[in-house]
Design goal:
- There is one protein chain.
- The protein is of the alpha+beta class and 142 residues long.
- The chain has one domain: Aspartate Aminotransferase, domain 1 (Alpha-Beta Complex).
- The chain is built from 4 helices and 9 strands, in the order βααββββββαββα.
- A 7-stranded antiparallel β-sheet has the order 1-2-3-6-7-9-8.
- Helix 2 crosses helix 4 and helix 3 packs antiparallel against helix 4.
- The mean pLDDT is 91.
Length: 142
């Protein structure tokens, strides 16, 4: 049976950020930590070895696959900063039109640095993503 690698753990968020190689990326990570904490009201937790997540929800797909994931989060990766928001939401694309300079993958939004984006739109994305997941999965917890 498939086991999810990205699970919430007790590793230190601050220690993880302190180990980010680039001083600028480390500075951006601390600013993101402040923004996500302020907007969500959740305490930051490590998910797997490199994702800083806020809140959590339990999902179950029609295929039977289920698990837990953070409501929103980010990861200061070597090349780009990954931002994690709810997928499958059409409003997300509409909000992203005002976000600034970014690229997207299957589920992530990637930015090079914080100055490339509008922080107010980031806050809107966080709020919308949490609401979307709360509506989709009513048993959302912390």
């Amino acid at each position: 049976m498939y086991e999810l690698k990205t699970k919430e753990n007790d590793n230190s968020v601050i220690e993880f950020i302190e180990n980010v190689e680039s001083p600028k990326k480390r500075e951006d990570a601390y600013r993101l930590l402040d923004i996500f904490t302020e907007v969500t009201g959740y305490k930051a937790k490590m998910w797997g070895p490199s994702i800083i997540g806020f809140g959590s929800y339990h999902y179950k797909y029609a295929s039977g696959h289920e698990g837990d994931a953070p409501l929103v989060g980010f990861s200061p990766r070597k090349t780009k900063i990954s931002l994690y928001f709810a997928t499958g939401d059409t409003k997300r694309e509409e909000i992203l039109e005002r976000f600034g300079k970014y690229t997207t993958g299957k589920a992530c939004v990637y930015i090079n640095k914080l100055v490339d984006i509008d922080e107010e739109v980031l806050k809107e994305l966080i709020i919308h993503s949490v609401k979307f997941l709360n509506d989709l999965y009513p048993q959302v917890g912390e």
